Amino acid sequence: MLEFYRNFLKRLSFIGTDWTLSLLHAGSYLNIDDILASNERTSCRVRVLLPSLAPLLLSDVKDKILSEGIDDGYKASDDVPVGKSIELPVWLAIAVGSGRRQILSIDVPPIYRNAFTEVFEADPCVVDLKRKGSMYYMLLCNLLMSGHVRVPQIVATGTKVFQSRLKMIMDASLNASRQDTLSSTSKFDSLEMALFRIGQTDRLQFERWISRHHEKIEALRTVRHVLVK
């Protein structure tokens, strides 16, 4: 049974290697990359009154309760008022804000807003995704379910970013030496880093094959025996 689950996990992601590449399985329950991406926080604005949830959702109220001690009595200050801006993990914001009631209005993370869109339109390769959005592509897949009005534009921008940066990833994986690897990958997000490592591994295997250090081509034993005679 343990072996079954181990093989099942390997099919969901590149578990057991030094990278993960599981964009095709975005949204899967056991997808570690998807869990990390959807746990990124984004700002939301409350559209209906949320009674007694301020201690849970608002850090300033939570800190005040901890400093004053536990009080089980109801207080109006424990309610989250309409129009209040809060930060939630993306998975929770989508679950609460994209339903029929739409309790929240979801704002997209900063990397997907107009300021970065203009930079991406000019030159996608200059953006440091490792620092600004380390799970850029996987988080984009999660935002598809948010119903946000900017989703079509975000998808178009993300497609252009990937197409433009893919050439940079291929050049780095095929040409970067061990000394150049750190500088070549300093701006890559997690998916780009995975593609880089896959390309670099394949290049090294090909070089070993060319130099006959890997999967050597040898004559069959019967052929060698005939040649000796």
UniProtKB/TrEMBL annotation:
Subcellular location: Nucleus
Gene3D superfamilies named among the record's database cross-references: 1.20.58.2050
UniProt GO cellular component terms: GINS complex
GO terms for biological process, alphabetical: mitotic DNA replication initiation
Main location: nucleus
InterPro entries assigned: GINS_bundle-like_dom_sf, GINS_Psf3, GINS_Psf3_sf
Transmembrane residue ranges: none
CDD domains: GINS_A_psf3, GINS_B_Psf3
Alphabetical keyword list: DNA replication, Nucleus
Family: Belongs to the GINS3/PSF3 family.
Function statement: The GINS complex plays an essential role in the initiation of DNA replication.
Assembly mode: Component of the GINS complex.
PANTHER family: DNA REPLICATION COMPLEX GINS PROTEIN PSF3
Name of the molecule in the record: DNA replication complex GINS protein PSF3
Species this protein is from: Schistosoma rodhaini
